[in-house]
Amino acid sequence: MPRATRPTLISLAAVVALVVAGCGSSSSSSNTSSASSSSPEVIAKSTSLGKVLTDGSGRTLYLFEKDSGPKSQCSGACATNWPPFTSATKPGVSGGATGSDVTLINRSGGAMQVTYNGHPLYYYVGDKSAGDLNGQGINAFGASWFVLSPGGSKVSGKPSSPGGSSSSGGKGSYGGY
């Protein structure tokens, strides 16, 4: 009887791990969209900062100013707080995003990270719903984080919508990092 319980506990632990990995998402997909999205997208959507890039679920995508060229400088704790936007295939585009600006790069763990105009793309764990802009202007892990325009450049400024202001207060500093 104890042997039958062990596989059940392992299965339960796996389910709990998947649920925890999906926390902070407004949909059933994981933070990195590659696990459950068969056709990922990069979409330009209108926000209080103008048009910015999101994934197919409307989750805001960010660039990290520490990245040099199409190489990610965000791993470990950084990637836990700023999960990379990964995909097994090149995402489609809509809303004014440009398909030729989308490429994939290899991450150290073997996953393929989506880039836009040479910028590796990330989510922010502080964004709880589609359209949130809570990561905008945060300085964390050695550089600042910004949303991108469909033209592929960082968007400066502070969001003016209720769900789009930084939850860290001040000028977007992320304490302790």
Brief overview:
The chain is built from two helices and nine strands; from the N terminus they run H-E-E-E-H-E-E-E-E-E-E.
State Rg: 17 Å
Strand order of the largest sheet: 2-1-4
Structural category is alpha+beta
Tally of helical segments? 2
What shape does the CA trace take? globular
Low-confidence spans: pLDDT under 50, at least 5 residues? 1-37, 164-177
Quaternary assembly: single chain
Share of residues in helices: 10-25%
Tell me the major beta sheet: 3 strands, mixed
What this model shows, in words?
The chain is of the alpha+beta class and 177 residues long. It has one domain (2-156). It has helices at 2-22, 77-81, and strands at 41-47, 50-55, 62-64, 92-94, 102-106, 112-116, 119-120, 139-140, 143-147. The longest helix is centred in the first third of the chain and has 21 residues, at 2-22. The radius of gyration is 17 Å and the shape is globular. The protein starts with a helix and ends in a 30-residue tail after the last strand. Mean pLDDT is 78; it is low at 1-37 and 164-177.
